[in-house]
Amino acid sequence: MRVMASMIRLTTFITMLMVISNMPYSHAELSTAFYAKSCPTALSTIKSAVGSAVSRERRMAASLLRLHFHDCFVQGCDASVLLDDTPSFTGEKTAFQNAQSIRGFEVIDDVKSRVEKICPGVVSCADILAVAARDASAAVSGPTWKVKLGRRDSTSASKTKAEQNLPLVTGSLEHLLSNFRNKGLNDRDLVALSGAHTIGQAACVTFRGRLYNNDTNIDAGFRSNRRRGCPTTGGDGNLAPLDLVTPNSFDNTYFKNLIQKKGLLHSDQVLFSGGSTDNLVAEYSKNRAAFNSDFIAAMVKMGDIELLTGSSGQIRKMCRVPN
């Protein structure tokens, strides 16, 4: 009986080892030192390229942050947003939430090219997006943080999933809260991440409805001013700063604008409209340090959404196409 019991325990132990060895890598495998040996200059190379891009065009900081966000919310942080259409799938770039709002692909192409020259086939496009977002924030006096690395790239993308999962600029507060909760993000994460709209610009087509559809939660002078550059017809691509006061600096003015009913997008202003997130907007408007701290925590948390790690996915040679 003792021999049989020992054999059973041994068999169980071996079975457990086999199960563990075949399990997909979890988020625990991510590490801030992931490329320390395989590509020690990867992070400095990315930082240099992003810094140059933002120096050429300040708006690019917001664009790189948005790329990372729009990537993570679809299939997870897997660089699927970067993929061009192929005969086998229609990618995410033309999803209606993306068509007028995401850009910066050429910057990521440049970063990837530079990294490939020093470490071919080592650094994923998904990790480049995560690091570029951090470096873009720092380049415009925003917060910085340590990025966990080790993500791998998807081999496909989905316009359908993008349109199902990305939040809408016309969305209600309930829509936004539900959208974020579905990704494991809470109400504080929603408001903190929305604070990235303290930099960047939006196209007229994304905020026209707020200006002309009898939205009462808007300052009259602000509405009149924005209408000049966004007529009822035409001018869809005309740009306006998301933060009219300090559009090129990462600060907490965005939240002060919301309190004054000067949020550009409907999805901005609903954060301060008599709902459950009003207190967070008020807190961040008074306490920039609290906003920065919560923004960092939310960015790190978002960077963990539905990852490909270990042997899953691939390390793309070019970010726009699967290998």
Automatic annotation (TrEMBL):
Cofactor(s) required, per the database record: heme b; Ca(2+)
Gene Ontology terms, MF aspect: heme binding; lactoperoxidase activity; metal ion binding
Positions annotated to bind Ca(2+) 2: 198, 243, 246, 251
Main location, first listed in the record: secreted
The enzyme's E.C. designation: 1.11.1.7
Residues that hold substrate according to the record: 167
Keyword Metal-binding on entry: yes
InterPro entries on file: Haem_peroxidase, Haem_peroxidase_sf, Peroxidase_pln, Peroxidases_AS, Peroxidases_heam-ligand_BS, Secretory_peroxidase
One Pfam family cited in the UniProt record for this chain: peroxidase
All copies of domain Plant heme peroxidase family profile, residue ranges: 29-323
SUPFAM superfamilies tied to this protein: Heme-dependent peroxidases
Residues spanning the signal sequence: 1-28
Reactions catalysed according to its record: 2 a phenolic donor + H2O2 = 2 a phenolic radical donor + 2 H2O
Cysteines engaged in disulfide bonds, as pairs: 39-119, 72-77, 125-319, 204-230
Annotated active site: 70 (proton acceptor)
One BP term from GO: hydrogen peroxide catabolic process
Site residues (Transition state stabilizer), renumbered to this chain: 66
Positions that bind heme b: 197
Assigned GO CC terms: extracellular region
Keywords: Calcium, Disulfide bond, Glycoprotein, Heme, Hydrogen peroxide, Iron, Metal-binding, Oxidoreductase, Peroxidase, Secreted, Signal
Superkingdom, taxonomy of origin: Eukaryota
Subcellular compartments: Secreted
PROSITE patterns registered for this protein in UniProt: PEROXIDASE_1, PEROXIDASE_2, PEROXIDASE_4
Function: Removal of H(2)O(2), oxidation of toxic reductants, biosynthesis and degradation of lignin, suberization, auxin catabolism, response to environmental stresses such as wounding, pathogen attack and oxidative stress.
Protein family per UniProt: Belongs to the peroxidase family. Classical plant (class III) peroxidase subfamily. Belongs to the peroxidase family. Ascorbate peroxidase subfamily.
Protein name: Peroxidase
